[in-house]
Write a structure and sequence with these properties.
This protein has 935 residues and is of the alpha/beta class. The chain has 27 helices and 29 strands. The N and C termini lie far apart (61 Å).
Length: 935
């Protein structure tokens, strides 16, 4: 198949675009003056007369014109333009980025840095105001409908983008990276540009009629050859990287017979005006503005016209603040190129890694439509899928040619939302710096943009905000409850098909009694159920059920949590994630024995058979197979029904479009609360609807009435406690965070010379760095220590950090870890594990959280005898519980049957290896034991 050519007759009518982003000015990082020149070079390379595959009007360039000073680029502005392009382009889409790039300590998750970007000491979210290649840029571009997507990254660590290059199956996608994975590149020369882009420009614009067309594959070989004489940072060889999914694409066509000859008084396409924009000399059959000559076509016409696109102005006056300025084309010409000014003042895009659902609706500027007003809708994680479906239906209504409203639906931990709204000024003016631990409240980082609408799962949540909101916070963010959208009770969902007949669903009782009943077992009776609950900090429903469990005098929070965390399924963030975790084939032993605290609607959906494939058929979520056990609901009397309140949020100072925004919010609420189409969305997802505060009987369209749920749910909603006070919930959250603390954490660090030989001992993301960074969640009341596994003078280990209370200043302990040398002795892994288990179990008894962390390259445990491993696993499971987390620094170290996997599995811990994001995941495991995050 010939390479894709945007200028071929069959593709000329399509929409093509290049989004060129060059960040030369930084607030918290060194400036990169060479990038400004590189941006002009890339613009010229794509549009140069005779060789360019795009016209000037098909370029969107960031930053916008800034006179003689450097330009700034906001990450949300850039992401919005990428999204607009992927929605509108059906031909060739090119995205170019030049600027700083950074990765996490373990080399994963490349982030592109923009003018306001900064790096903080937060192991979970180290990059602020930056764009993740994996979670944001790539996630957007894989949804593009373009014939071809081409991305060029000219930044440090550009090669790390290959780790997260995952196009759609049928997508044509090419990625060109300035260097290999893990390689940093020099900043370039301000007078000439960055070395990589200078090389690309020369190759793309230097084609002659005798040259072969610059296809992507050919260009890769040429740029590698061009960069070979140069050296990257640290004298590293400079080899650009590439990834391609699809055939091939043309990025430049052969130019004039003798290359880029001069015309008139200067070289075509190389002269620059004072404003920094390139002049264009265009010739073609139709005179100025005609398409570039194609290979094999004759060049006719001799007129030339030079025009600075930067001097062009939009007709009809300026646009409203915060909207893009487009340059209208002169008669007979294609649109000239656009540059956009900073749009962050009114940008309504929300980006929450792993949690947000983004929906942006753009209108074609050629139709004369004003940009739609963007509503930001923040929702509880458990109701996110349903609200997103409803928003999709709302936007798909036939409202005429121009859409007035776009909607971004996103989510975050319920407790984070409450904290953020109680400290609302931080949403508008975040603190200038965080403590070294990175533990500070940053709503924009943790949640996203200020919401216009908030839909928690329960009214108790917004009442908790008001109860704890200061006068200053109340003056910044005002909550206006408009009413409830739908209802679903929390239930204890008990397996119904294992030969045991559950109690009838018409016997409600306090939740603690229901839980005790499924856990109790006579000697001759069935095996008791294990009880699971989602993370109480994640969703409102889980926190309300926890409040009910803690509320009985003879059940202390510590005992409750000890029983809940004794199970082998890690805590899941949402009810849906919990059910999907049970459906995981590796946990079949839990599937039939787990009673779960989840919303009734979630249970009802998972009880359904798989969808038949017919249009409109509702089936169980895709993560669950048909063998997942059906469950029956037991209704607690002391947990409020989730009532999905809809709250309008208004912000001090947000007056520019206040009237239109208020009207849009009320219109969205009225539609959700009253429109038949909207009600159908909630009904199909198993929610109950009806007049405010009065849920109706489920209709025939509801999963609650499906055959699969006969006898599993109560058609008439049983009575439950109508109110849980804000003080109760706040006390529960405090008790939950401290229920099992303080904890005891002991690291066993393989310090044998093989660790150094295998290059996993020192450096970012390696053994010592992993241990040091993962200690962040350890609080002042915890106990922690670090042992080296090579034998000392009088023991089978060396105390790098003695086990005890940590110093308030973590610096000395981290310094001791960092200075630890590799020892020319074999690591005594078995002895160290035995001693470590014994040490953690000494002292206080009861449900004290204990964690043993083994960090190793597995070389000294590879030949252990099977009987020794079995004996160690038995020791690990006897006596007071100790979770063991093993970190294997080589591939395959977590394979089933190996020591690492067996220890982790037997103790309810985890085995982490090179396939995991080690720093983040290990820190998260330590956080389950340490109390440093408790507030």
């Amino acid at each position: 198949m010939p390479p894709y050519n945007a200028r071929s007759p069959q593709n000329r009518a399509k929409t093509h675009r290049a989004v060129l982003i060059g960040v030369d000015s930084y607030m918290h990082e060194p400036d990169l003056p060479a990038v400004a020149h590189s941006l002009r070079l890339m613009e010229e390379a794509l549009t140069a007369e005779g060789t360019g595959v795009l016209d000037p009007g098909e370029l969107l360039i960031l930053p916008g014109p800034t006179g003689s000073g450097p330009g700034t680029v906001d990450p949300l502005e850039a992401l919005r333009e990428i999204r607009n392009a992927r929605e509108q382009v059906d031909g060739l889409l090119v995205v170019y980025f030049a600027g700083h790039g950074l990765v996490r300590a373990d080399g994963t998750d490349l982030h592109l840095l923009f003018s306001p970007s900064r790096v903080i000491a937060d192991p979970h979210h180290p990059f602020v105001d930056a764009l993740s290649w994996r979670d944001q840029v790539m996630a957007e571009l894989r949804l593009a409908r373009a014939d071809w997507v081409v991305v060029v990254l000219d930044c440090c660590f550009a090669g790390n983008a290959r780790l997260d290059f995952h196009p759609e199956e049928q997508q044509n996608f090419a990625l060109l990276m300035a260097a290999e994975q893990g390689v940093e590149i020099p900043p370039g020369d301000a007078a000439t540009g960055t070395d990589f882009t200078v090389g690309l420009h020369r190759l793309l614009t230097g084609r002659t009629w005798a040259s072969k067309p610059a296809t992507f594959t050919r260009l890769v070989g040429e740029i590698r050859e061009a960069m070979a004489p140069l050296k990257a940072v640290h004298d590293h060889r400079w080899i650009p990287g590439e990834r391609r999914h699809g055939d091939d694409v043309l990025l430049a066509i052969p130019g004039r017979k003798h290359g880029r000859e001069s015309e008139g008084n200067g070289p075509a396409g190389t002269a620059h005006e004072a404003g920094g924009r390139s002049k264009r000399t265009a010739t073609g059959p139709e005179g100025a503005g005609g398409a570039p000559a194609q290979p094999g076509e004759s060049e006719t016409g001799s007129e030339t016209e030079s025009r600075s696109a930067g001097a062009a102005r939009a007709e009809g006056g300026t646009h409203a603040a915060g909207t893009a300025q487009a340059v209208d084309p002169a008669p007979g010409r294609r649109p000239s190129s656009r540059r956009h000014r900073a749009l962050c003042a009114t940008l309504a895009l929300v980006c929450v890694a792993g949690a947000g659902v983004l929906l942006s609706v753009g209108d074609d500027p050629d139709r004369g439509c004003a940009p739609p007003l963007e509503l930001r809708v923040l929702v509880d994680p458990d109701i996110l899928p349903t609200v997103q479906k409803a928003a999709d239906v709302y936007l798909d209504r036939d409202t005429g040619d121009c859409r007035a409203v776009g909607i971004s639906v996103y989510t975050g931990n319920s407790t984070d939302v409450v904290d953020a709204l109680q400290a609302a000024p931080l949403w508008q003016a975040p603190p200038a710096s965080c403590p070294p631990s990175g533990d500070c409240l940053l709503p924009q980082r943790d949640l996203g943009a200020q919401p216009d609408v908030w839909i928690p799962a329960a009214s108790a949540t917004w009442r908790r905000v008001l109860a704890g909101q200061s006068d200053a916070a109340g003056a910044v963010a005002t909550l206006d409850p408009l009413g409830s959208l739908a209802y679903t009770p929390m239930v204890l969902a008990v397996p119904a098909g294992t030969g045991q007949k559950p109690d009838p669903v018409d016997r409600p009782a306090p939740l603690a009694d229901l839980v005790a009943a499924v856990r109790d077992s006579d000697d001759d009776g069935p095996e008791p159920y294990q009880v699971h609950r989602p993370d109480p900090e994640g969703g409102d429903g889980a926190l309300l059920t926890t409040t009910a469990l803690y509320g009985t005098d003879d059940r202390r929070p510590t005992a409750v949590e000890a029983a809940l965390t004794d199970d082998r399924l890690p805590v899941q963030p949402t009810a849906r994630d919990l059910m999907c975790g049970l459906a995981d084939g590796s946990r079949n032993e839990l599937e039939d024995r787990a009673a779960v605290l989840i919303p009734e609607q979630t249970m009802a959906l998972f009880n359904l058979p798989s969808a038949s494939g017919e249009s409109g058929t509702v089936g169980r979520p895709a993560c669950a197979s048909d063998i997942l056990e059906h469950r029956a609901a037991r209704y607690p009397t002391d947990v409020p029904v989730l009532d999905l309140p809809f709250l309008r949020v208004t912000w001090a100072g947000a007056d520019r479009d206040a009237t239109a925004r208020k009207r849009a919010v009320h219109d969205f609420y009225d539609w959700l609360a009253k429109d038949r189409e909207a009600r159908a969305v909630f009904v199909r997802d198993g929610f109950r609807t009806g007049p405010s505060g009065k849920p109706s009987l489920p209709s025939a369209a509801s999963p609650l009435t499906a055959k699969a749920n006969e006898g599993a749910v109560s058609r008439l909603l049983p009575p439950s406690n109508p109110v849980t006070s804000a003080d109760q919930v706040t006390a529960t959250l405090r008790d939950y965070r401290q229920a099992l603390g303080p904890g005891r954490v002991l690291y066993l660090l393989d310090d044998s010379t093989s660790m150094e030989d295998n290059r996993v001992w020192s450096g970012p993301g390696r053994a010592k760095d992993l241990v040091a960074r993962s200690t962040a969640p350890i609080g002042p009341e915890d106990t922690f220590g670090v042992w080296g596994l090579s034998p000392g003078s009088s023991a089978d280990h060396t105390e790098l950090v003695p086990l005890g209370r940590p110093d308030p200043d973590p610096g000395p302990a981290r310094t001791a870890i960092g200075r630890a040398p590799a020892v020319n002795k074999n690591a005594r892994v078995l002895d160290g594990l035995r001693d470590g288990l014994s040490q953690l179990r000494s002292g206080s008894e009861g449900p004290v959280p204990r964690l043993l962390v083994l960090v190793t390259d597995d070389e000294d445990s590879a030949d252990l005898r099977g009987e020794d491993v079995r004996a160690l696993v038995e020791t690990a499971t006897e006596g007071p519980p100790v979770r063991v987390v093993t970190v294997s620094l080589r591939g395959g170290g977590c394979a089933p049957g190996l020591l690492n996997h067996r220890l982790a599995e037997a103790t309810g811990g985890r085995c982490l290896d090179a396939a995991d994001e080690l720093t983040t995941e290990l820190t998260a495991e330590v956080a389950k034991t340490g109390t440093g995050d408790a507030r």
